[in-house]
Amino acid sequence: MKLLQAVFIVLFLFPWILRAQDFGQLDVKVSNKTGPLEFVSVGLQGTHYGGSTEESGRISIPKVPYGEYQLLVRMVGYKSIKQSIVLDQSKLAIELIMEEESTALDEVVISGTMTEISKMESAVSVDVYSPKFFKANPNPSVFESMQNVNGVRPQINCNVCNTGDIHINGLEGPYTMILIDGMPIVSGLSTVYGLTGIPQALIERVEVVKGPASTLYGSEAVGGLLNLITKTADRAPKVSADVFATSWGEINSDLGYKFNVGKNLQSIVGLNYFYYQNPIDNNGDNFTDLTLQDRISVFNKWTMKRKQGRQFSIAGRYVYEDRWGGEMQWTPENRGGTDVYGESIYTRRWEVFGVYQLPFRETINFQFSANGHNQDSYYGDLSYQAQQNIYFNQLTWHKSIERHNLLVGAAYRVTYYNDNTVATEDEHLTYLPGLFVQDEFEINSQHKLLAGMRFDYNSIHGEILSPRLNYKWTSMDKKNTIRLSIGNGYRVANVFTEDHAALTGARDVVFEEELDPERSWNTNLNFVKKMTTSNQTFIGVDATAFYTYFDNRIVPDYESDPNEIRYGNLDGSAVSKGVSLNLDLSWQNGLNALVGATVMDVRLDENGESKRQLLTEQVSGVWNVGYTFGASLISVDYTGNLYGPMRLPLLGELDDRSDYSPWFSIQNIQVTKKFVNGLEIYGGVKNLLNFTPPANSIARAHDPFDENVQFDTNGNVLSTPENPNALTFDPSYVYAPNQGIRGFLGLRYTLHQ
């Protein structure tokens, strides 16, 4: 009886069992605007069902169980397609059209010409880096994130407080202009602090221009510029969060939120918080290896939708940071005293900037910005109190006349700076009105010429002219581009606001003369090639040769007197020259690589003697290699850099430390798991090789106030049994961070609607 019941149940349920195991066939045809696409990867997420399209653009996937799936369609050079499907019939046919995707060699850029234009169409060479590039090696600040950009190096200038600046093609930080949404927000006093605290979740892209851009942007844009483009409200996610922590105890949080007020007003709010309060001394010199920091930054941007698409936006940011480094036993009670050495810096900074497109038929934009930077700091017992306010406004007019694209602008900048040093005994205010004009002339579809001229009047140094000329050739198939540029740059220096070494340590600062503005001439030759091989591997080549010649170069002299840093205009010339190469590679299997190398020679020629610039490498390399494991949404990123020897500042002939740094490399690895609901979990290891400079990077770390240093009547350090190498306390012998290997773990979440 039981056997009959079992047979009856099986016979009764058999059709339903068959129904549950029904299989169907999925037919997919993929095309672009011109026709079928071959070698397109088509698959069902989370399954082994899939393959590549044939010459006809078609693929048939048989014996797929009925059910709901996520269809993934990918191909190098095209935007990926992700579509929900339901297979509940014997055959399901789908036709898809793929859109071409801008690669790293074909982004929309604005920094080179002040107008939005495709990178390939721009007569000025601009490197573009998206948030995806920086996520491969997450960092708590934009400053640290630049370590994997070819030809760009974040330079730590002080072993104690870990402040630094951005070098481009071997030129120091003061020659690099930092822009936020095209506004000169970060400069002068904020040069060494302004790249911290910017919520990276709200950065749309970072544009890098190598070479002078003074014709459009004025002083400081001598070596190049970084332009941080923040997201507009219509492109920002509804909610974003990125939080990670390291095994050293660092915690970084980036939060973003978007909301609407009525129909025409949108706002995005960003918050960055970085916390590190774990003194570590792995090299045993009794000084913190990493500066302790407590920093909060709040960012808010408003965008108003106006008639005929005219733009109006205004944004603001506030930053507060409490940073200190020094002897391990230092406490806030020791601030400014002589018992325990510490460098304590309180920073308060505010920024406001925006753009308003005037209601005229022509494109006329009014741009404005204002910022205030207040620094309350002690370097041992040396007090440095400084305040800087910069007010900037600019009016630009764009006009297209046949094959000419004209840009005319007027700018006015007021800088107030005051500190408690000899640098500001006389002048506190600097006025800088300027006029500029640019004509981008399209000779034909292959040839383009850009010419520009700027006139500035500095209230202290007088009239300044800055011309530039750019030429671009593009092949008929748009796969080859050559750019040639020549331009002039200038810079008015303020030593104490830009060179942190002038404040830290025991050396005295000496001005040999009144500093004149620096002038430079630069020429660049850039070649770009895009190609796709027969197996659908994308290869992008971006090669540049550069040459920069300086007049009146201001060079800190660490070598004439071990007790002093001497500043003066170079009685001679300075040259920066070299070549760089970027390779952008993408394979059909999900492997991507961006590899770069730069070889350069930066020299100072004075009194018939030629010598390499201090703290400047001749060879450097960077890489960013990523691989995604198919539909699992697991990816691995391997990033790193390599630097050749740099000439280092010694304290005299008896200083037994090496006068050149060794070859060194900082390498990182990260694994990321994405989920379909916008969640990401990532983790990895930074500084895999655990490279750190030697423990003697800080000279006489045991005697930071030079209590046991003896001097002769001329102020020269004497060699004694306690101090045989005639050294003083000095933390400027620095070429790499002191932070060693560490693990990290993070969480990201993005909600678009």
From TrEMBL:
<dbReference type="Pfam" id="PF13715">
    <property type="entry name" value="CarbopepD_reg_2"/>
</dbReference>
<keyword id="KW-0998">Cell outer membrane</keyword>
<keyword id="KW-1134">Transmembrane beta strand</keyword>
<protein>
    <submittedName>
        <fullName>TonB-dependent receptor</fullName>
    </submittedName>
</protein>
<dbReference type="Pfam" id="PF07715">
    <property type="entry name" value="Plug"/>
</dbReference>
<dbReference type="InterPro" id="IPR039426">
    <property type="entry name" value="TonB-dep_rcpt-like"/>
</dbReference>
<keyword id="KW-0675">Receptor</keyword>
<dbReference type="InterPro" id="IPR008969">
    <property type="entry name" value="CarboxyPept-like_regulatory"/>
</dbReference>
<dbReference type="InterPro" id="IPR012910">
    <property type="entry name" value="Plug_dom"/>
</dbReference>
<feature type="domain" description="TonB-dependent receptor plug">
    <location>
        <begin position="119"/>
        <end position="224"/>
    </location>
</feature>
<dbReference type="InterPro" id="IPR037066">
    <property type="entry name" value="Plug_dom_sf"/>
</dbReference>
<comment type="similarity">
    <text>Belongs to the TonB-dependent receptor family.</text>
</comment>
<keyword id="KW-0812">Transmembrane</keyword>
<keyword id="KW-0472">Membrane</keyword>
<keyword id="KW-0813">Transport</keyword>
<dbReference type="InterPro" id="IPR036942">
    <property type="entry name" value="Beta-barrel_TonB_sf"/>
</dbReference>
